[in-house]
């Protein structure tokens, strides 16, 4: 099975969005360079960021998100973002009315079921868990192998926390990746077991 990675861009003070779910300048680094990150031509990063991010994105098989993120993005119109094969949505509600059953989205109740479903779908590829409340729940359940952060040079002061509402201590190893890019610091930590 592939490893489970919690991931997001984050402010220096640990927020993934403001109180109104707006990421503000957190994603500015994705358009701050001259190397295309995907086929859209919209995302352009520094060569350093490309060399770190692109191989990671290519290994992601499934992304796990909460229903809140799914609703905010309108389910990406039934097409998983960034070329990912499947999206697993953690929710206590049924899929939206009129949702295309052929879309590669899987609605499950609870983070343990989400990780099990995602790992089955991903095979040996990475299962990515979006940071925030669902990511924090997966971490609290002891199911996260690695934490990746793209730290943007901004302080929000308040908002949606990277680790959600986790209130217990979780130890991480020393960072094994610390890479400065244009307007971003890429960090990777393994979760201590």
UniProtKB/TrEMBL annotation:
Residues 111-169 form the Bacterial bifunctional deaminase-reductase C-terminal domain. InterPro entries: DHFR-like_dom_sf, RibDG_C. SUPFAM superfamilies: Dihydrofolate reductase-like. It comes from the Bacteria. This is Dihydrofolate reductase family protein. The lineage of its organism: Bacteria, Bacillati, Actinomycetota, Actinomycetes, Kitasatosporales.
């Amino acid at each position: 099975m592939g490893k489970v990675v919690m991931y997001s861009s984050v402010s220096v003070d640990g927020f993934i969005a403001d109180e109104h779910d707006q990421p503000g300048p957190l994603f500015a680094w994705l358009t701050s360079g001259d190397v295309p990150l995907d086929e859209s031509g919209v995302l352009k990063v520094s060569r350093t960021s490309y060399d770190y991010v692109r191989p990671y994105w290519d290994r992601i098989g499934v992304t796990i998100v909460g229903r809140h993120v799914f609703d905010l993005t309108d389910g990406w119109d039934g097409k998983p973002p960034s070329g990912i094969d499947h999206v697993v949505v953690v929710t206590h509600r049924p899929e939206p009315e009129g949702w295309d059953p052929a879309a590669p989205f899987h609605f499950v109740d609870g983070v343990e079921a989400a990780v099990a479903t995602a790992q089955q779908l991903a095979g040996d590829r990475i299962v990515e868990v979006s940071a925030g409340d669902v990511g924090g729940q997966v971490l609290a359940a002891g199911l996260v192998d690695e934490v990746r952060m793209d730290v943007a040079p901004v302080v929000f002061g308040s908002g949606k926390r990277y680790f959600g509402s986790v209130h217990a201590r979780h130890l991480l190893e020393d960072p094994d990746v610390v890479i400065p890019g244009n307007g971003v610091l890429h960090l990777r930590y393994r979760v201590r077991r």
